[in-house]
């Protein structure tokens, strides 16, 4: 119900992660009814392209995992995605901006690579670049189909925000803008990848193609944009209302910057109404001076130490030819968690 009332595709991600069976294989149109939170155009896309929905479910799981790894060193570590009310994402915060951008990028990223791997029958490898490669290089391999990923990904991602009952106009503009920032970060992540050929690994010729960087690298780029995100207001500009920077409204919003409408809580204490799970029992770094430091992470409440035994490979020796033997060593390390 919450999903349908907010038309929030981040809600779909949360419900898909928590309610969709891992073993569910979308191979019949009635399976689309088992996916919670879809708006009508998304459900229609599901029925007409069952393989695509399987890919989108995979992207949903990747969003949560990547988000939590990217923000593991900060008070907000994406745990809000699991809060049923999803208040944080309904209020237009900086965190909402990041999740929308990452989600849009993840959907298109997963679809583009599914084309390459042959998991989607309606698409194939991306086109061969028109420019002539340098001497010693040649185009080949199977490029990630970024164009198809962007087209189909935006159809799914932007559908909820284009409905009449999709919440306030300001929120719709914000989410559409941030989703496009995520897709732009994906375009910037298309790089040349090569494989060497030649006698004895001489690499006299390289076969190259256009491939996407890992989603974790794109998430790091979006995290930088999150840290420098611009607070905006919704006000008349010419004949219609637009989002403009709150403190420096002499310029329009830039296409590559994340924007948000409302300030975030400090995430120190648990508060479901504000979308905060708090930092109690979070691990912190006693020697750090950054966001993962015990002072910052624990919000001045202090921390408790504990010890942990680690078993590691050690005293490794290389034997000719060709294997390595190692011993196992134990060491005790001290950890710290927030009170």
Automatic annotation (TrEMBL):
It is found in: Secreted, Extracellular space, Extracellular matrix. Ligand for members of the frizzled family of seven transmembrane receptors. Transmembrane segments: none annotated. Gene3D superfamilies: 3.30.2460.20. PROSITE patterns: WNT1. One of its GO terms (molecular function) is frizzled binding. This is Protein Wnt. Belongs to the Wnt family. GO terms for cellular component: extracellular space. Keywords: Developmental protein, Disulfide bond, Extracellular matrix, Glycoprotein, Lipoprotein, Secreted, Signal, Wnt signaling pathway. Its main location: secreted. It holds the Pfam family wnt. InterPro entries: Wnt, Wnt_C, Wnt_CS. The gene is WNT11. The lineage of its organism: Eukaryota, Metazoa, Chordata, Craniata, Vertebrata. One of its GO terms (biological process) is neuron differentiation.
């Amino acid at each position: 119900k919450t999903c349908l009332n907010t038309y929030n595709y981040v809600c779909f991600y949360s419900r898909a992660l928590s309610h969709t069976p891992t073993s569910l294989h979308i191979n019949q149109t009635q399976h689309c009814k088992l996916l919670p939170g879809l708006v009508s155009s998304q459900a229609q896309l599901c029925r007409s392209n069952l393989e695509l929905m399987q890919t989108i479910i995979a992207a949903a799981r990747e969003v949560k995992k990547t988000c939590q790894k990217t923000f593991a060193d900060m008070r907000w570590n994406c745990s809000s995605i699991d809060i049923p009310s999803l208040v944080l994402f309904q209020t237009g915060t900086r965190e909402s901006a990041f999740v929308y951008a990452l989600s849009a990028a993840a959907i298109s990223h997963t679809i583009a690579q599914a084309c390459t791997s042959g998991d989607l029958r309606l698409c194939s490898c991306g086109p061969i670049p028109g420019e002539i490669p340098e001497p010693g290089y040649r185009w080949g391999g199977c490029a990630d189909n970024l164009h198809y990923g962007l087209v189909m990904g935006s159809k799914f991602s932007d559908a909820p925000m284009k409905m009449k009952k999709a919440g306030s106009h300001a929120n719709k503009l914000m989410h559409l803008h941030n989703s496009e920032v995520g897709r732009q970060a994906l375009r910037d992540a298309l790089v040349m990848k090569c494989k060497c050929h030649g006698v004895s690994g001489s690499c006299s010729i390289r076969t190259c193609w256009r491939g996407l960087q890992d989603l974790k690298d794109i998430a790091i780029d979006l995290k930088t944009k999150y840290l420098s995100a611009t607070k905006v207001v919704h006000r008349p500009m010419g004949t219609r209302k637009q989002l403009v920077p709150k403190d420096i409204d002499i310029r329009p919003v830039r296409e590559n910057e994340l924007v948000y409408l409302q300030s975030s809580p400090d995430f120190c204490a648990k508060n479901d109404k504000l979308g905060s799970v708090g930092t109690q029992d979070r691990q912190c770094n006693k020697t750090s001076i950054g966001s993962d430091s015990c002072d910052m992470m624990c919000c001045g409440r202090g921390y408790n130490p504990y010890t942990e035994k680690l078993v590691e490979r050690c005293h490794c020796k290389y034997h000719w030819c060709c294997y390595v033997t190692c011993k196992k060593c134990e060491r005790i390390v001290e950890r710290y968690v927030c009170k």
